[in-house]
Specification:
Strand content: 25-35%
Number of strands: 51
Number of helices: 11
Largest sheet: 9 strands, antiparallel
Bound molecules: ligand MIG
Radius of gyration: 27 Å
Amino acid sequence: MSIAQEESRFSLITSEGCTLELTFLTENIVQVRYLVEESESNHFSYAIDSRFTASGDVVQTTENQISYLFQGTQICVEVNKENCGIRILNLNEEVYCEDERGFHWEEHETFGGHIVKMGKVVQEGEHYYGMGDKTMHLNLRGRRVTNWAMDVYGFKKEEDPIYKAIPFYLGVHHGRAYGIFFDNTFRSHFDFGSERRSVTSFWAEGGEMNYYFVAGPEMVDVVRRYTSLTGVPELPPMWALGYQQSKWSYSPHDKVIEVASKLREHEIPCDAIYLDIDYMHGFRCFTWDQSKFPDPADTVQQLKNRGFKTVAIVDPGIKVDPEYFVFQEGMEQNYFCRRADGPYMKGKVWPGDCYFPDFTHPRVRKWWTGLCRDFIEKTGIRGIWNDMNEPALFEIEGKTFPDDVRHDFDGNPCSHRKAHNVYGMQMVRATSKAWKKPTLNQRPLVITRSAYAGTQRYAASWTGDNIASWEHLWLATMHCQRLSVTGFSFVGTDIGGFIDHPSPELYVRWMQLATFHPFFRTHSSGDHGEQEPWSFGEEALRVSRDFIELRYRLLPYMYSVFYQYVTRFTPMIRPLSMVDQHDPDTLYRVDEFMLGDHLLLCPVLEPNARSRYVYIPRGKWLNYWTNETVEGGKEILVEAPLEQIPLFVRQGAVIPFFPVMQFVGEKSIDQLTLLVFFGGEKTVSELYEDSGDGYEYQKGVYNLKTFKTFSTEDTFKLQLKTSGHYEPTYSTYQILVKGLPFIPSKIWLNEMLISADEVFIENQSLTILAERNTFNSLRLEK
Ligand code: MIG
């Protein structure tokens, strides 16, 4: 074996002519790539974010009789001289992961190239997580999954694959976590100790064995590092975090306006209304059915007048129609995908026979961006919803393009076998770019159904055609947690289920869960009954409204959690295993999860349940509804009447609350409430604020406020530090200290002793008003 070095990259060339390339991208990420004789030399990735900078690492190379050692700052890669097998260790020489059979390959007889394979040892007590939108339990040990984006209407629990292909997993054992991202777009398979209990393997039906090893040891750091590699979205407009109402389809114009008016009548806060495929003229993208929407810009304007943004669906299939401008342009410019031998890729979707833009071609994307931009500028819509982009086809085996279809793949021409999993991603990439026009000065909402690793940079996502069943409510909570630990935080589900009709109770329980999902939308197929919050009777309406209102109160918290995601790559939703991986009891939990640093919740997943067991992770928490303190590290029975789901707040947390609004920007906020939860030696909370839309924040017009609280048996202190120069509309803070165990005899505001008349105390809660301009601390003493 010979070794060549180029900065942080080491190439080990074996006598069989296979090269192992190790690149220390950062202290915690090593790219491991194998080149077999005729491997492509032009390595190209859609997944890796162009903003990711490989800082490299200082690596010491040594060798002993058996291996070569590459000792970086945080990780050591050991390569066996005889079989090229690798072991990756931490600084204490403890194993993160090690090859079993390691890299091996097989000729692909039908298509040429290789089926590339990797085998790793299952470590003692190892558990596996991640992989995007798999429909099984969060913990993947003992399971096998496939990555191939598929339209699966009414997917079932355990059904695989479905819409997204995200070949990234986390392993955790002995309290140490690491991640492996297999950046290969071909159909790939992962076996987590299913075929052989002691082996985890992954393989792809073509391409290269090219994976990124991401070190922990904390799970949350593995996810953060993976996310830094594959990217984050821009901050969404704040309205995109509000409640959204959709159905297949609200149409015609009058119906849309009626739904909007009813939302306002029933005082259900809502920010967006969706137009599904029936707004189009014969399902032709970028057209409107004149008989239903005679003046689309007027529809959008009327919605705007009522405080709603309009989001319209756009599918990839372009109707074969010589009279249709999009078809004409695509034909003239040769933008449509072709079969291997030259004919166009013709497939049936909603419009009938369609051709499909090759979104992997930069010129095609540019054209598509232009089409979207014209569309939004002409009508004023504020979001585009890309559906069917797996791509999905009707009446064909495999429900997608045949393997032989050709794609440009950004100058690396290939077949659909390689481009399939990124097709939808490249479509939303082109779509989202439509808003990149300075004069527009709007942050968009783009959502996608299909995705490959890295798609989170371009769009939010929903989990597809789910069903109105209690099992799907379980899937919903699992799905969003899994996507979040796979770099995709801005996700949600069709509230109440897309297929079939939920009972009022199921709808309410779903709404309660979704209140804590970043993407918050009711959508349904419309075939089985109405699914607006008022369609389920008075009680369901009242509770749904309460939770949607809670979501609007929580907007500054949600927005700050989003800020943490886009600046520090922290997943917004965190499964319990990620909250405390050192507590073995968390490793199999699915129901409880955290939103951001401070909120812990647990949906109610069974009919008629009015209480449920909840595992509270270690540490101290306050029950949001009762202010009771609970000590974690155990399972407790929690009350869950229909109007509540178990919700806990970390001791010492400061949660900012907006007043209830019917939509973001409805009123100018003149007071910001700070809910402060007593307890904890020291707790840090953050509030990010900016204008909520536009791009001024990128020029520094935002604030980051850091709250610190300190509690003892008979004292309490809250401190605030602000950085930034955004001028919010509110002039006062209403500070509400909850769960206070003593009546203070002395109170200091901004270090000045004040009289007890300035505060209001009731039920262990203390309320005080403070000027925003001057507030920096509150101190209480028994
Ligand atoms: O073949 O546009 O998942 O949300 O309402 C069905 C109609 C196509 C599937 C999407 C769903 C949407 C529906 N679409």
